[in-house]
Amino acid sequence: MNSLDAFAEQKLAALEAGALRRRLTTTGRGPDSAATRGGRAMVSFSCNDYLGLSQHPRVIAAAQAAVAAHGAGAGGSRLVTGNHAILGELETRLAAHKGKEAAMVFGSGYLANLGITPALAGSGDLVLLDDLSHACMWAGARLSGARVLTFRHNDMDDLRSVLAANRAGHGRALLLTERIFSMDGDRAPMDDILSIARDFDAWTLVDDAHGLGVIEDGPRAPLEMGTLSKSLGSYGGYLCASRAVIDLLTSRARSFIYTTGLPPASAAAALEALVILEEEPDRCARPLALARRFTARLGLPEAESAVVPVLVGEAQQALDLSAQLEAEGFLVVAIRPPTVPAGTARLRVAFSAAHSESQVDALSEAVARLTAG
User: Can you give the pTM of this predicted structure?
Assistant: First the structure.
């Protein structure tokens, strides 16, 4: 065995021993949160399609029409091949939705966060993150070359303390957080965060990947980014900000400049989904209502978003519980370190407007029975 394969085998064995090895499982998706695995029909509570729009006939039709009219791919970077009209329309609508002057669409939410922070901060600057921020926010912060510090999760006293102790020694400062945290489903105190940021002349970037269309109340940050792949049921990422900031990132965000533009079908699907999102407030309210139905039935803390964690503890325990639920027809993913801290492995239950009350009740009964005692 060569040294590369030996290295891989050694690492795989260690992951296996800790119940941390990841494997891909072929899974089909359909309307009404349907899923299939190994020929078995299941109900998925693992998908971030919070509004069920990936399966909406209007969204599918918009994607099909875009492929027929414009082809499957974008052909290259938007700065090389030219800017597609659908992307311009999508950016205009996203900016209006967020109350901003302009928007920029990236190839994914991960690419957005890889590009935004390094375009605005560098050597001699400060980037401060909530310590539960998503991995892509961490990656962008480290790529920037700025000094990277953290504050305790949603702890405003700690945030103020860290800024008071470190802000004066740096040029620019960025403060990174999520509106809805992806693994715990809790909300950031945006009023307090923005107030503290203003006190220290820090620019706030909020990741709204899990809030768009579901939890959007409260103030806007100067930098509002998110994804097109969750509530909008498509694929891609975006930043909404002032016209000056978006114009600057057009020349500085490397993950925008040096990558192929979003395919026309993805842009058209997201655009139609955004129209539906704005037309149907009852659809947007449904995921939180169902999540709260679930937490009430299980005696868990009241859900703050469409994401509810069921804490288990060790990785193997979470895998076992997920497998037991799968055997009963429920697809609920087990989340393990390093995605979450050691000892906090969990089931991550994601609720969608496409779920029925009976599906939610059946899942809650199964979880209660399997975790009893």
Answer: 0.94
